[in-house]
């Protein structure tokens, strides 16, 4: 897979200073964690998953989560498992006969309900599990986490050298995490557990919908999750525990629930944002002529995610793919700053003026930020100096005038 591979060579050359690099589920964990990006959820009962992937129905899709949990009714679990297996076996046959290229196979994850179901799915997939990047563990706690990761570790230990790693991705969304009186104890216990299995943890995901439900709250399409105070405070503590650079995890942001119920306005109608307007804190998001406030809110939330070190987002509609992924592309200014900081780490320079002469770059304090920017640049690419993420959103016939 490669981000923005739907562009022609000429279009890519016009937008990117450094194009995104290819990746797949065998890519080293440190880079693969950033590549999860916009993860499109679909219920395991969907009968066209394999055909949708074969036909590349969703432009830009790089990550798919096949859901056996909330998206499946309690009385349909057995049918959903059978459907999941059928879709994975079809994908395997498409690859075998050559109708599907591995370059076009997205990262595949399965969200399961229990440790018992995890064991059952692993057994039933047999050798076809090599197509799966990992399993997602909802309502993850310190109490149930061992049962999940002990299985993941045991499976990986049994694989031959060179086999792709099977990852686990915990979702933090339980009452013990958001309730203030139990939060720190639970988060620290989860952190201790994950640290023991760190090589198998691809990222840590935040389940803000379940958090909000505990307070009877739901953000509107004009707000971000950062405007919901109990959830924001909890997210801050999750970032504090799991985002520290001495033992850092890539943290993925919560799902955005809204999409347009009518025909979408063309994304080329978005008005390019000014640099001072990129914080997303204004009363109105400056997207001129947009008929989709759902997109306005999504863009503001992703920008706030990124400002807080969160990369990756659960999505539930294909229209979210481009907006989320486009914002992860690295700007030329970010890239030049990061390169300059890394190049100055020999100890002879402590602080330097940026190439744009608009900020101070301190070598030691900004080194962790610079390393993260370079990692993101490899996956999502670096835009040309004169380009903006809007170019990645705009229609192909208008983006490169």
Automatic annotation (TrEMBL):
Protein's UniProt keywords contain Lyase: yes
InterPro entries: C-C_Bond_Lyase-like (IPR039480), Pyrv/PenolPyrv_kinase-like_dom (IPR015813), Pyrv_kinase-like_dom_sf (IPR040442)
Signal peptide: none
Domain of life: Bacteria
Cofactor names: Mg(2+)
GO molecular function: lyase activity; magnesium ion binding
Swiss-Prot/TrEMBL keywords: Lyase, Magnesium, Metal-binding
Example GO biological process: oxaloacetate metabolic process
Pfam family membership, one: C-C_Bond_Lyase
DNA repair among keywords: no
Protein name, UniProt field: Citrate lyase beta subunit
Organism: Paenibacillus algorifonticola
């Amino acid at each position: 897979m490669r981000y923005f591979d739907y562009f022609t060579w000429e279009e890519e050359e016009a937008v990117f200073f450094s194009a995104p690099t290819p990746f797949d589920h065998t890519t080293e964990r440190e880079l693969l964690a950033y590549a999860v990006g916009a993860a499109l959820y679909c219920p395991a009962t969907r009968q066209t998953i394999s055909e949708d992937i074969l036909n590349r129905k969703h432009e830009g899709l790089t990550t798919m989560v096949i859901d056996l949990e909330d998206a499946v009714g309690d009385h349909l679990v057995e049918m959903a498992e059978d459907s999941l297996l059928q879709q994975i076996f079809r994908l395997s046959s498409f690859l075998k006969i050559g109708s599907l290229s591995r370059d076009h196979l997205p990262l595949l994850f399965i969200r399961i309900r229990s440790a018992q179901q995890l064991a059952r799915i692993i057994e039933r997939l047999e050798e076809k599990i090599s197509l799966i990047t990992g399993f997602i563990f909802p309502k993850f706690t310190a109490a149930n986490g061992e049962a999940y990761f002990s299985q993941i570790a045991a499976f990986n230990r049994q694989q031959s050298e060179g086999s792709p790693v099977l990852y686990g991705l915990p979702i933090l969304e339980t009452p013990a995490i958001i309730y203030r009186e139990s939060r720190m104890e639970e988060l620290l216990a989860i952190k201790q557990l994950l640290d023991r299995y760190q090589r198998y943890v691809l990222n840590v995901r935040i389940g803000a919908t379940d958090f909000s439900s505990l307070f009877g709250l739901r953000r509107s399409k004009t707000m971000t999750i950062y405007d919901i105070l109990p959830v924001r405070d909890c997210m801050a503590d999750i970032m504090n525990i799991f985002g520290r650079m001495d033992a850092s995890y890539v943290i993925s942001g919560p799902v955005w629930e809204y999409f347009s119920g009518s025909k979408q306005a063309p994304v080329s109608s978005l008005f390019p944002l000014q640099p001072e307007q990129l914080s997303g804190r204004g009363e109105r998001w400056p997207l001129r002529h947009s008929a989709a406030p759902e997109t306005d809110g999504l863009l503001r939330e992703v920008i706030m995610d990124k400002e807080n070190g969160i990369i990756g987002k659960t999505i539930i509609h294909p229209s979210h793919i481009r907006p989320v992924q486009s914002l992860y592309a690295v700007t030329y200014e970010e890239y030049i700053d990061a390169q300059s900081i890394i190049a100055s780490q020999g100890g002879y320079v402590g602080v330097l003026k940026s190439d744009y002469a608009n900020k101070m770059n301190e070598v030691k304090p900004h080194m962790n930020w610079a390393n993260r920017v370079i990692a993101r640049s490899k996956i999502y690419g670096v835009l040309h100096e004169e380009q903006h993420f809007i170019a990645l959103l705009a229609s192909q016939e208008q983006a490169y005038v």
